[in-house]
Amino acid sequence: MKLTFSLVFLHILMISLWASAFPVIQIGLESFSPQHLAFVRLSIASVVLLVIAIATRMRLPDIKDIPLLLALGFLGFTVYHTALNIGEKTVSAGIASLLVSTTPIFSSLLAIFLFQEEFGKRKWIGSAVSFAGVALLTFSKENFVHSVNGILLILLAALAESIYIVCQKNLLKKYGFLSFVTYSIWGATISMLVFLPGLETELAHISVRSAISVIYLGLFPTVIPYMVLAYLTARIGSAEAAISLYLTPALSFFLAWLLLKDIPSAVSIVGSIITLCGVLLTHSKRRVVVKKTKFTMQR
C-alpha cells in the first residue's frame, strides 16, 4: 500500500490524539476523582456519538446482542478508563502509555486460549521480553513504594481492553466499527452512572485547566481516533492500520515532558525500552525467502 499524504496525516492524527490522552488525564485528575473523570469523559463522548447516530440514522442493536454489548462496553471503557485513571495517580503518563501498549500481547494470549489461534516462538519470546520490562518498571526501588499498585491497575486496564478487542469480532462484523464503538461507549456510560453521586461537588470547584482537559478527552481521544482507525482499517487493513500505534508511548513521554515537566528516570527509560522491544518483537513479521521462485513472502 502506497503511503499518500492523506494516509500519513491520518496516522499522525491518530497517534497524536491517543498519545495526548495520557498527560491530559493527569491534568484532569487535579480536579476530578478517577471515577468521575472517566464518567464525564465518556458522557461527553456519548453525546457526540448520539449526534452522529442521529445524523447517520444508525440502526439500533438487536435485543439479543445488548447484554454482550453492555459487557464489552463495561470492560473496554468502564474498567479500562477507571483503572487507567486510578493508575495514573501514581504512574507517569509516559509509563502509563507504555504499559497500555502491552494490550496486543494480552489479546494474542487470550486468542490462544479462547480461539486456539497460533502463537509462534517469536511471539512467546517477545511476550517474555515485554513482561520483563514491565517487571523492571514495577519492582525497581524508585517505583515500588509509590506506583506498584498503579502499574498493576494499568495492566488490568490493558487486560480489560484486550478482552474487549478479542471478543468483539462477531459484533464488529455485524454492526460495523462506528456503530459497535458507539454502542460500547453508551453501555459504558450507563454502567458508570453509579459514580454520579459527588460529581456536582467536583464540578463546582473545577479549575479551568481541568475543565478544558476533560472536554478535550471527551471530544478528541475518545471519538476521533476510533473513526480514523475505522477508515484506515477499511483502506489498508487492520494490521497496517495498527502498527503505527507503537509510536504512541514515545510521543506520550514527550508530551508529558512538555505539559507536565515529567522527566523519566534512567530505570524508567530502560524498562520502557525493554517493554516496547518486546511488544514490537511479538508483532513483527518473519520474512521467509524462497530461493526457487526468487521472491520474498511474509507469514
TrEMBL record:
It is a multi-pass membrane protein. The keyword Membrane applies. Its main location: membrane. Pfam families: EamA. Keywords: Membrane, Transmembrane, Transmembrane helix. InterPro entries: Alkyne_AA_exporter, EamA_dom, EmrE-like. The chain crosses the membrane at residues 37-56, 68-87, 93-115, 124-140, 146-165, 177-199, 211-234, 241-260, 266-284. Residues 8-138, 150-282 form the EamA domain. It is found in: Endomembrane system. This is EamA family transporter. GO terms for cellular component: membrane. It comes from the Bacteria. Belongs to the EamA transporter family. Signal peptide: none annotated.
